[in-house]
Design brief:
The protein is mostly helical. Helices cover 57% and strands 0% of the residues. The longest helix has 19 residues. The protein is elongated.
């Protein structure tokens, strides 16, 4: 596993961020930045996923298109019927009119239900346009633009935010919204790096760095993580040697 002896608990956040990237790239394996979904699917699914399990989000998305056929049908549907179709999400009565407004704005801009035009827009313009729509925050917009259009942005969800705070990349009072800017400034503006940093820290938050009772002894970042230092003291040579070199469990979505 790549380690830099200079990157310890007192290292600068930028040094820690790059070491985090190198270590987790080995731990989880580098990922090719290939879109997992079409841009429209990514956008609407991410809107549906707010405070909702992946299974319930997938069920809501499938039922929505089964019921109304296509995006034109979803936009034209009676809002209460759309809310019923996506009832497995956390707030269907809120999400239904938001989705219809998003679809209206996309159609008004592109003349169709497509986001492909964003590929030609500068990053700042695309980010501002997406976040101006209801229900689309920095995380959702950054995710769509990074995953689908290779824009140099870093989506920060609760897992990435938690890991970044515990390691010491950002301060303990930095909000999730502020963390987008802070973390992006620590890393090179390279879509491959940012994609892997997002996915790997997201997985670490799911697999090891839990909100409650994190499994710190199994964490590959223990050699420079502030949380580990606070709760366990400096990682010993034995503790570092006992750390798994790669993740062998399931990698969630």
């Amino acid at each position: 596993m790549p380690t830099d002896p200079a990157v310890t608990y007192t290292a600068e956040p930028a040094q820690k961020a790059w070491q985090d990237h190198l270590v987790l790239n080995t731990f989880y394996g580098p990922l090719p930045r290939a879109p997992r979904r079409t841009p429209m699917r990514e956008l609407i699914s991410t809107v549906l996923s707010h405070r909702t399990t992946h299974r319930d989000e997938e069920q809501a998305y499938a039922r929505m298109l089964e019921t109304f056929g296509d995006w034109a049908g979803v936009e034209a549907a009676p809002t209460q019927e759309l809310a019923h179709a996506i009832r497995t999400t956390r707030w269907p009565d809120t999400q239904a009119p938001r989705i219809q407004e998003i679809l209206r704005r996309i159609r008004a801009e592109a003349g169709d239900y497509t986001l492909d035009f964003l590929a030609e827009w500068p990053t700042d313009r695309a980010l501002a346009w997406l976040t101006d729509m209801p229900g689309i925050g920095l995380k959702t917009a950054s995710l769509v633009l990074l995953f689908n259009f290779r824009k140099p942005l870093l989506p920060v969800d609760t897992h990435v935010h938690r890991v970044a705070q515990r390691v010491g990349l950002i301060g303990p009072k930095a909000s999730v919204e502020k963390a987008h800017q802070l973390l992006l400034a620590l890393l090179p503006p390279d879509a491959e790096v940012l994609f892997n940093f997002h996915k790997h820290n997201y997985w670490l938050g799911q697999h090891i760095c839990f909100f409650a009772r994190p499994n710190c002894p199994a964490c590959p970042l223990k050699g420079f993580c502030n949380y580990y230092l606070e709760h366990y003291g400096p990682a010993t040579a034995e503790a570092l040697a006992a750390t798994p070199t790669e993740w062998e469990g399931e990698k969630l979505h």
